[in-house]
Design a protein that fits this description.
Bound molecules: flavin-adenine dinucleotide
Number of domains: 3
CATH architecture of the largest domain: 3-Layer(bba) Sandwich
Number of helices: 15
CATH topology of the largest domain: FAD/NAD(P)-binding domain
Number of strands: 22
Distance between the termini: 64 Å
Helix content: 25-40%
Strand content: 15-25%
CATH superfamily of the largest domain: FAD/NAD(P)-binding domain
Shape: globular
Largest sheet: 7 strands, mixed
């Protein structure tokens, strides 16, 4: 008999939620985490960034409150306290994960684990066996081989930037994806001069370019160099080649490297155990099965989606198939990447789900689209003013009128987007959506207005 029903390698969102679900289902589970429970998301990702962004938003609101009839004088921020708030939030949530695992009866070992073969994991020099193994080792930041990056203390990744002791006067951000944009917005709000250098023609590549362009213009205090390739860094001076082939130099005090993350597929025995690893990560099917019997992989390590909520879902899917494969299959427990929403918690926020207009057309579809300003929402106007940046774009298939994508710009977008994901999951048409009653006044009403703005 095996030592455990399931061994989970990695205690981030994918791993800890899978362990919890399995524990509550009566499985004997071992969760191995080499660092801190909660993984990237809780310790150096989603949560610390949102804690800092919340302070940035409060500071920014206080500075700009006069238009709402509230005068705040002597508005200042205290970076040490901002960092204390972040640490307190992270500490409480990490402790919460530990308590949740305990409640689920999951045994947790803090150590590096190595997959030896299907059903065998080595930890602290001991081999533990299990009927199933779930790999959830996550991802790590990419540091590209640009001259001047390696060993340069003025070039940091997201983890390094989260820990800085003072806001830099000038920050250069390399990469205009979600992480780059969030940090750019956050530090600009705290008064840093920020420039984002992005190789692609637009920021946030999964956003519909119409809304991505509006988001870019709305990011107060952030300058952008788009379609530009960084060629070298000296100290904190970044050289890049612009679209005309000219070399431009940007002087900064600190450089954030935010060009992406790569699945952590090495250092824990994948190759030695014969696990199939492709260019994107550990290869899995839609039920999270790998090529090895009873070895599953979830979260960033699969490269299927590098988002925490996708990791949660993948963990749940693997757990469901381990607990009761027949029930899980008949319930359609499988990963549907097309309906995973994304969000940017910058000032202002943005979020989206599904196809962009260009992606739908590349798929060979004829599309119906509408874009409406959030000035259609009474709540949005009351809280931001009529000229504030905010919009909803909807994309539907012209033949079936099924909604294919919904993209939002404006505050509350990340809170609203789950509804759009549900619209796509349930394959609602524009006409179905028009019959859904939205609460008034809410920012989400913009989605309804966009559905009515689609031509018949
Ligand atoms: C700055 C930043 C901001 C982000 N913001 C968001 C956001 O707002 N929303 C969002 O959805 N996503 C966000 N993400 C992405 C999110 O953090 C990841 O998608 C998520 O953490 C992936 O979860 P995971 O369980 O797959 O892996 P991880 O969270 O990376 O966890 C993997 C864990 O495995 C452990 N591990 C690895 N190898 C071993 C081993 N051999 N033995 C034992 N333990 C091991 C690691 O220590 C780690 O704790 C952000 C990421 C960053 C960097």
């Amino acid at each position: 008999m095996a030592d455990f029903d399931v061994i989970v390698l990695g205690g981030g969102p994918g791993g800890y939620l899978a362990a919890e679900r399995l524990g509550h289902a009566g499985k004997k589970v071992l969760l191995i985490e080499k660092d801190a429970l909660g993984g990237t998301c809780l310790n150096v990702g989603c949560i610390p960034t949102k804690s800092l962004l919340n302070s940035a938003k409060l500071y920014s609101h206080a500075l700009h409150s006069a238009q709402f009839g509230v005068t705040a004088t002597g508005v200042e921020y205290d970076w040490a306290k901002v960092q204390e708030w972040k640490a307190d939030v992270v500490g409480k949530l990490v402790a919460g994960v530990g308590a949740a695992e305990k409640r689920a009866g999951v045994e947790v070992i803090k150590a590096h684990g190595t997959l030896i073969s299907a059903g065998v994991v080595e930890v602290n020099g001991e081999r533990k066996t299990a009927d199933h193994v779930i790999i959830a080792t996550g991802s790590v930041p990419v540091m590209p081989p640009i001259p001047g990056v390696k060993g340069n203390p003025l070039v940091v990744d997201s983890t390094g930037l989260l820990a800085i002791e003072a806001v830099p006067k000038r920050l250069a951000v390399i990469g205009g994806g979600v992480i780059g944009v969030e940090f750019a917005s956050l530090f600009a709000a705290f008064g840093a001069e920020v420039v984002v250098i992005e190789m692609l023609p637009e920021i946030v590549p999964f956003a519909d370019p119409d809304l991505a362009a509006r988001l870019r213009k709305a990011l107060t205090g952030v300058k952008f160099a788009l379609g530009c390739k960084v060629t070298g860094i000296e100290g904190a001076t970044v050289s890049y080649e612009n679209g005309k082939g000219e070399t431009v130099r940007v002087e900064a005090d600190l450089v954030l490297m935010a060009v992406g993350r790569r699945p952590l597929t090495d250092g824990w025995g994948a190759a030695e155990a014969g696990l199939e690893v492709g260019p994107k990560g550990v290869v899995v099917d839609d039920t999270m099965r790998t090529n090895l019997p009873n070895v599953w992989a979830v979260g960033d390590v699969t490269g299927r989606s590098l988002l925490a909520h996708a990791a949660y879902r993948m963990g749940e899917i693997a757990a469901a198939h381990i607990i009761d494969p027949i029930k899980a299959t008949s319930a359609g427990q499988r990963l549907r990447t097309a309906t995973i929403p994304w969000a940017v918690y910058s000032i202002p926020e943005a979020a989206g789900v599904g196809l962009t207009e260009a992606q739908a057309k590349t798929d060979g579809r004829e599309v119906l689209t509408a874009i409406v300003p959030l000035a259609v929402s009474g709540r949005f106007v009351a809280e931001n003013g009529v000229r504030a940046p905010g919009a909803v774009k909807i994309i539907a298939d012209a033949a079936s009128r099924t909604v294919l994508g919904i993209h939002l710009l404006g505050n509350y977008a990340p809170e609203t987007i789950w509804g759009a994901a549900a619209i796509l999951e349930t394959e609602l048409t524009i006409d179905d959506l028009r019959q859904v009653v939205f609460p008034h006044p809410t920012v989400s009403e913009g989605i309804r207005e966009a559905a009515w703005a689609v031509r018949d």
